[in-house]
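re: ur msg from earlier - yeah i can do the adenosine-5'-triphosphate complex, just paste it... oh wait u already did. ok heres what im feeding in:
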Amino acid sequence: MSSLRFDQVCFSYGNAPCVVQFSCNLARGELVGLIGANGSGKSTLLRLGAGLLTPTVGQVELDGKPVRSWKGEERATRLGYLPQSIEAPLPFRVGELVEMGRAAARKDHLLSCQEVLAAVGLEGHEQTPLSQISGGERRRAFIAMILAQGGKTLLLDEPLAGLDLRYQYELLTLLRSLCQTHNLTILLSLHDLILARNLDRLLVIRQGQLLADGLPTDILTQQLVQQTFDLDPRFLMAGIVG
Ligand SMILES: Nc1ncnc2c1ncn2[C@@H]1O[C@H](COP(=O)(O)OP(=O)(O)OP(=O)(O)O)[C@@H](O)[C@H]1O
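and the outut:
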């Protein structure tokens, strides 16, 4: 059974179509990247996956049931969602944020507070106010909260944005090991095609439609990248495509 399934999903903001007949199955244990130009619909797809938006047509299923039919706490124990923007002023400390994630977790949650903070490189920062850490550190604190929540399906909107190279690779390594050892399903949007080559599978979208779905080494061709981003064919892509 797939963990998350999009079945012929369409979505419009008002009269403007944003997602067009999008279908895919995400299996347990997969670390999947979502690639596309600005405005192509990545965040919208992740919000549909999290049940924060309702498809105009089609269905999104989480663990075999329509995602929105899982109620509040039940959904929170199954699914973690990291929004793209986490700018809200928060009068909390790092440890309190992580505890909020744990409050939603089941008894058999995956990782302790200490473990998730160590995993994102914020050990010893439990008492630090969120207002006193950098943007990249704040993103890592939110990722720690989502890991503490213990859901088996994670939808992460640009989790690597604003992280320096070390933490980008450390976070990817952590996410990969969670997929392998705890059978998590992770769908994350990203813009860096070199980092994307480290994922198990990529979904490439253009104007809300699925252009390609497969292994990074198979699908990241010069032609696909040019089509995805409307690039001038003379643009040099050494190191980006396989
Ligand atoms: N709340 C909204 N109301 C109306 N239109 C929206 C809304 N949110 C997004 N859109 C539009 O839907 C389209 C897809 O937006 P979305 O944020 O899903 O793209 P994205 O691929 O995540 O972009 P980016 O890479 O810039 O984050 C864009 O044209 C955007 O303007």
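cool cool. The radius of gyration is 18 Å. ping me if u need the other ligands too
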